[in-house]
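Issue 218. Parser rejects a valid record. Input:
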Amino acid sequence: MLFRSAEFRVMKNEKRARELAGQFAQERKEELLGGATQARSADEIFKQMHEQDKLVLNLIVRADVQGSVEAIVDSINQIESTKVSCNVIQSGTGAIAVNDIERADHGKALVIGFNVSPESGVNALARHDGVRVQTFRIIYELLDFVKQEMLALLPVEYKEVVRGHAFVKQVFDLGKEGVVAGSLVNDGCITTDGKMRVTRRGKLLFTGGISTIRHFKETVKEVKQAQECGIMLDGFGDFEEGDVLECFAFEELPKTLVGKVAYRILEEEELAKIAAAKQQ
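Output the parser choked on:
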């Protein structure tokens, strides 16, 4: 049952979404039944689950002197991030040694050095164990590297962007070729690399891919506002005059360390299409 002012969350996968829904439903039930347990809001539950999912970058720090070690560790700990946390599992002075590589391998950590070099045989062991070792002479370059590694842990996030709308003026049945919606673009643009929603009197009928767009007799990739076109969709042909077509796409968001994760469930097919569109 949906309640007025019900909150909606878009989660990164179905399993986590079901967990959140189940937990929230149980606490809602306890609240309605007057149970002793105080019901928490969806925001609180979501925050708890987000903390459980928080990503961690493990680091081993080596520097020439103790003062440098302390300054680097303090600076790393001061990097502001709500999505990824840094965990310095080991630090010390002197050259990068074999035991650093062994600890990094066990702790799934990166080894970073400041004004130091690896001892003999360390690079070969690191390559063998798949441990990354980076050395620096400038502290801000070291910190920039750490921030980039934190960003690299984040999953790719997408936002839905509406590109344009069109309405169906006439329907053409081409037999085996399919059904074409003769349309006029109201605003924005319609593109073949996007997706399409078909609505009729406010009711959603279809969401899916765009097969072809024709402008006059030519097949095109895009039509703009005030242009007429013929549109064929993948898996849908039950058009009627007056149907509204909404073209939308998923655009990749820039990665940031601060802010909420904009979880969005994307099917493998959707991700493949996004990747293919980038290569075009």
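Fixed in the parser; the record now loads. Helices lie at 14-33, 42-52, 66-77, 98-107, 122-129, 139-153, 268-279.
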